Amino acid sequence: MDAILYVNRTGCSWRQLPHDLPKWETVYWYFEVWNESGVTDRIHDALRARDRGGRDPMASAGMVDAQAVKGADTVGTNTRGWDGAKRVNGRKRHLVTDTLGLLVVVLVTAGSVQDRDGGRQVLARAKTAMPSMVVVWADGGYAGKLVAWVDTHCRIALDIVRKPKGQGEFAVLPHRWVIERTLSWLMRCRRLDHDYERLPAHSEAFIKWAMIGLMTRRLAPTPGRRPGVPRVGWLRSAPRLTP
User: Fold this and answer.
1) How confident is the model over 84-109, as a mean pLDDT?
2) pLDDT tens across 16-33, in order?
3) 132, 114 in Cβ contact below 8 A?
4) Is the keyword Cell cycle assigned to this protein (predicted)?
5) How many C-beta neighbours within 10 Å does residue 144 have?
C-alpha cells in the first residue's frame, strides 16, 4: 500500500519506485488485481465509514461535479477528448461526494463528454453504491432534462445551486464548495495533476487511492504533524515525473 501511495503522491512511474520499496512489478500487480477484484473499493469504503465521525455510513445527501484534466501522451485517442468549455484536451472526472466531501463514486470519461451525460452514469453508480442517497446538489451544468431523468431513474432529487443574479465577484456558494474542496484535495497528488493512465479504470483507482491516503492520515495522524502534510521530506522534494 505504501508503494501505491508513493506513486500517487509523487507522480513517479512504477519503474522509478525507490529500492527500499517492493519491486515495481509486484506493486503494479497488486494495484491492478485489487482494483479489478474490488479490494480497493472495500478499503476506501471502510475508511470513509470511519472518517464520517460517527455519522450514518449511508449518506442521504451528496454533491456532483466534474473536473477536466489534460491527458498525457500515454492516454489513447479513444479515451480522450476536447472539453470546449475548459479548453482542455484530455479526460474528465465525474465525482459524487457526501456532505463531508468524502468520495462516494467516481467515473472517468473522455474530456468531450458533457457534464450532463457523465452525470447520468455517475449518479446511477452513486444510487447503486449508496441507496440511501435521495438529494444531490449540483451546479448549472447539470440543469435541464437531467433533473427529471435522475428523479425518475435514480429516485434522487437533483438540486441546482446557481449563482445569485448580479454576482460579479467570487463567492462561496452553499453546498458546492464542499465538492470543490474535494477536487483540490485530489490535486495534491502529482499523479492526478494530469491523467497519465492508459485505462480510465486506473485513473478512477488512483482517485480512490488519493482519498485512501487522505483518510488514513486523518484517522491515524503522525504526532506533531498537521493532517495532510507529507510524512517525510522526499514527498515534498520528489521531482514531477511521467510514467
Assistant:
1) 96
2) 999 999 999 999 999 999
3) no
4) no
5) 11
Residue 176: partners with Cβ closer than 8 Å, 6 or more residues away:
63, 65, 137, 139, 161
Greatest Cα pair distance in the chain? 57
Q: How far apart are CA 33 and CA 21, in angstroms?
A: 19
- % of the chain exceeding 90 in pLDDT: 82
Quote the CA–CA distance of 61 and 132 in Å, as a whole number: 8
Q: Which three cell numbers stand for residue 56?
A: 450514518
* Whether CATH 3.30.420.10 fits 2-162+171-222: yes
Instruction: Give the whole-angstrom CA distance, residue 230 versus residue 205.
Output: 21
Question: DSSP string of 34-102?
Answer: HHHHTHHHHHHHHHHHHHTTTS-SS-SEEEEEEEEEEB-TTS-GGG-EEETTTTEEEEEEEEEEETTS-
pLDDT in tens, 195-240: 999 999 999 999 999 999 999 999 998 776 665 554 544 344 444 4
**H, E, C per residue of the chain:** CHHHHHHHHHCCCHHHCCCCCCCHHHHHHHHHHHHHHCHHHHHHHHHHHHHCCCCCCCCCEEEEEEEEEEECCCCCHHHCEEECCCCEEEEEEEEEEECCCCEEEEEEEECCCCHHHHHHHHHHHHHHHCCCCCEEEECHHHCCHHHHHHHHHCCCEEEECCCCCCCCCCCCCCCHHHHHHHHHHHCCCHHHCCECCCCHHHHHHHHHHHHHHHHHHHHCCCCCCCCCCCCCHHHHHCCCCCC
